[in-house]
């Protein structure tokens, strides 16, 4: 038998998704059961404010809040803060930033001491899009915002920035 954590997304109708998260376990040959731990309906009828890239969906609730609140609202919805892992994902997030014309916090934070930035899930940053001369906070700017040209800036975490989640 095997068990893996998974999430299954069903697109129900235009701009609406059902998101199941749980444990996929094989019970006998050819049969698997999904034990669902969480279930969310993402009803995002927002006229193109959802972007699908590969396995990810990016979406905004349009709210501007500090980093901790943005992360919390994404997690409550069954996702996390948008974290671009490549140019294509960065462009998709940028599309939302441009629609709202607001800077957005990304799911990236500076480590406690090292001056290194990493994804909020602890994964290393293999893709970055720093604006010239950034990051420049030298430990005083622990969060990362996306500008309206798609480039990144390390920034304090207590500002109000557009919430963009990934699912
Ligand atoms: Ca900076």
From TrEMBL:
Any Pfam family the entry gives: Lectin_C
Asked whether the UniProt record includes ATP-binding among its keywords, one would answer: no
- What GO annotations for molecular function exist for this entry? carbohydrate binding; growth factor activity
Species, as recorded = Calidris pygmaea
GO cellular component annotations of the record: collagen trimer; extracellular space
Recorded superkingdom: Eukaryota
Localization: Secreted
| Annotated Gene3D superfamilies | Mannose-Binding Protein A, subunit A
Major subcellular site: secreted
Identify the residues that the record assigns to the C-type lectin domain, covering every copy: 67-166
Any Gene Ontology biological process: ossification
Keywords carried by this UniProt record:
Calcium, Collagen, Disulfide bond, Glycoprotein, Lectin, Secreted, Signal
The record ties this protein, via PANTHER family, to: C-TYPE LECTIN DOMAIN FAMILY 11 MEMBER A, TETRANECTIN-RELATED
Q: What is this protein called?
A: C-type lectin domain-containing protein
